[in-house]
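Sample 1 of the test manifest.
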Amino acid sequence: MADTYLPEGMPLPGYDPGSPDEGFWEACRRHELMVQRCADCKTFQHTPEIICHKCHSFNYEFVKTSGKGVVYSYMNSEYPVHPALKDRVPYNVVLVELPEAGNVRMVGNLVDAVYDEIYIGMPVEVVFEDHPGAEVTLPLWKRADK
Amino acid sequence: MADANTIKDKVAIVGIGESAYYKRGQSPYGEFHLMLQAILAAAEDAGIDPREIDGFASYAGDRNEPMRIATALGSPKVGFSNMHWGGGGGGGSGAVGNAAAAIVAGYAKYVVAYRGLAQGQFGRFGQALAARAAKVTGGNAYQAPFGCMSAGQTLAAMQAQRHMHEFGTKQEQFGAIAIASYKHAQTNPRAVMYGRPLTMEDYHASRWVAQPLHLFDCCQETDGAAAVILTTAERARDMKQAPAYMLAAAQGSGFRYGAGAMNRSMVHSNHEALSEPLWGMAGVEPKDVDVAQFYENFTPLVLMSIEDYGFCEKGEGGSFVEGGRVEWPGGDLPINTSGGNLAEAYTHGFEIITEAVRQVRGTSTAQVEGAEISFVASGPGVSPLSSLILRR
């Protein structure tokens, strides 16, 4: 049985040390879902950037969220775009919006539902998937509607 | 004379050229060979010596570098070489617009705008090679590890789903766009899908690539090249072909379309940002357009482009494309009259520009009778992207 939603061999995320991505991925490693926020004007943004798109401040922080989100859109991937997916189609991809963090969106997989069960507006909650030997952890989603 | 601060009416496309088009991997020639064929054909069409081309404009990181082309042609001098930023096909009209700007600025006399793309030689877009590294950083890190890698996944499928949700758009409305392209390709012997018509039954029966995208919602993977040559409107009047005058060109992007993980509008094509500048420069309205080429990377983004340029209200793109309304002959607004990216060839959307020129010349294989105003929208969903309008 696979322990991960998508098989080993898929690209895994990394970050350039000192880049604004570090705060997001290091939080995932600790099993915390954090979103970049401007330390001055408090605007959320994702994916992370060096400055705030609203006030141009270089001062940012990462704010811990509850990990609760809502499905904004979704799809069912049936074509194996990567050799590692050859025997692992179809799989779903969801776009999750975080109402408590400025409605920023994150791409992920919904681990406990198939395509036909997913709907826009579906409440979901983050679940972290560790990959042995990898430097990071993937933020995935599970349903929170029942 | 037109206002100084515009390209409007000052520039014309005077030559068009293409290589033969092949399903990916079936070209007997490499990409640069195909590119030279297209440029030489465009010069012949224009009635000029290819050595007179002294300007070069392309997009999407085209591999066919101007200096190699000029050297191969034996051009005595080059006055302009330019690359429109960004991957994807967003820069097709932008390259033509940049070429037009160079003509108006006086950098060059004959500028060729071009794109060569041999996916057989250099890898298939559908296999998302750039996102395949064992470790991905930056924007890819937020999508690729979740199996969201190809353009169909990163651009179109979840936009289509969201548009269906917000506006009630139906699967068969995406299908209607594919059927129009395939229908027009049946008149066009250049088209890779010539002789291969498509019905709505075929469309629905085709496999899902990334549901709600069927196979036929997605552009082809082909080998080919296309080019157009521009010069001043004044010079164009005495040349071999009827000029296709540049009425307007626009390029750019809307709010934060560069943000990762789809943190931007999911029901727009990004063309909404170009609508006002394009129509403003052209001085015409959507109802004045006789024929239109909408870059089809994915049919849902065509539907959104139609809305975003105001051919219909936002959310009404679905009903706009139904009932043969975008088909030739007889439709109110025939689109993609050569077969476009779906059924002619995927030269990253440059074949829709040569087709737009054919329409104002009166030489298309799906000719809209008396076409005067010919519209092109390039690369929906990507940023930056571009568009143009030609007139007879």
